[in-house]
Write the structure tokens for this entry.
Amino acid sequence: MMGKFAAHLPGDLRYACRNHMWCRPAGDGFRFGFTAYAVRLMQDVYFLDWVVSPGDRLNLLQQIGHIETSKAESDLYAPLVGQVVCFNQDLLKDPSAINVDKYGAGWLFEMAGDAAEMVGVDEYYQYLADNWENTQRHIKGKINTDD
């Protein structure tokens, strides 16, 4: 649950608890996007910008971009150690797909790396339940970083 709202999360994906992203295999790496939980808390996404490029090597929680939503302007951080493969260029022109098709056309980027730290849907649901109040405050103020 997200407060009084159900968090609908596909069972076939992996999840990054510290930045509320989903992860699925794609090519030689993984495709990432925001979970329904994150989208619900952010509400409408107005602007998205990347500060790294395809081919760049990233550390865990390295800043990779910025997002502006109806709730906040925030930095975005790498969900794992690895290399950026590509970004969803369509979102730079119109990020509304994040709001309406978060598990499809609203994907953010692809990375090659080790996704061993990603958790299954049951573990992510438990994380949400255990951290609802803290996570809500955290995402509203600083999207997808962990203390």
Notes: The chain has one domain: 15-135.
